[in-house]
Amino acid sequence: MKAVGMEPQVLIDILVGAKIGVVYPFGTDHRGDLVVTSYALKQAGLPSNMAGAVVQLEDVEETAPGNFVWKFNPDVKLIRPFKVHGTMELFDVDDDQIHYEPTNWFNIEKENEGHAKIAAWMDSYVAEHPDLDRVPRADIPADIAELAMSFDDWRAAYFTFLFKPLKAQRQELRTKRYDVEPL
User: Which helix (H) or strand (E) holds 2?
Assistant: First the structure.
């Protein structure tokens, strides 16, 4: 799949849904799936050399000579982070490295929807089994288990790409929330 690098903060802005375009000094004829990645800039608390999501590149508009706005669809598909050595030009990543998450844990609305779905199932289960201290893994439906494991596993993977993680990031991203074991 085609990929392109960008400053780490710009990648974060795309992941949270705050940015749907990036300015580059070059255009491209490529349209469709595009992996967005962060450069190897060493900025405390931001990801470095990380592939973060797949977006749909819908258009590229030249706004001035040597100034191209790459326009993305706002529907961001979060992927499990993996290491890249991207530059500010199109490059290829192996499709086998791309593993989509069931939701965009970086977007607060999508994250809240994911937690609400897990909580609704847990509340229902606990109401039916009030004497249990721990939910047996075999009782957790596949979609709920996938969502819960994705949250914890994605956070752990993301943490490894942070340059000089901030104290709050170290505390939050190292703590498992659901601790669901695979079957």
Answer: strand 2-6
CATH of domain 2-97: 2.30.130.30
pLDDT of residue 172: 86
77-107 tens-digit pLDDT: 999 999 998 677 899 999 999 999 999 998 9
Lowest mean pLDDT among 34-38, 144-148, 177-181: 177-181
Rounded to whole angstroms, how far apart are CA atoms 176 and 84?
A: 26
- Domain segments of the chain as ranges: 2-97, 108-173
Segment 119-147 mean pLDDT: 94
CA angle 143, 100, 147 (to 5 degrees): 25
Place of tokens 């990036």: 22
Residues 6+ apart with CB under 8 A from 132: 126
The answer to whether residues 74 and 21 touch, using CB atoms and an 8 Å cutoff, is no
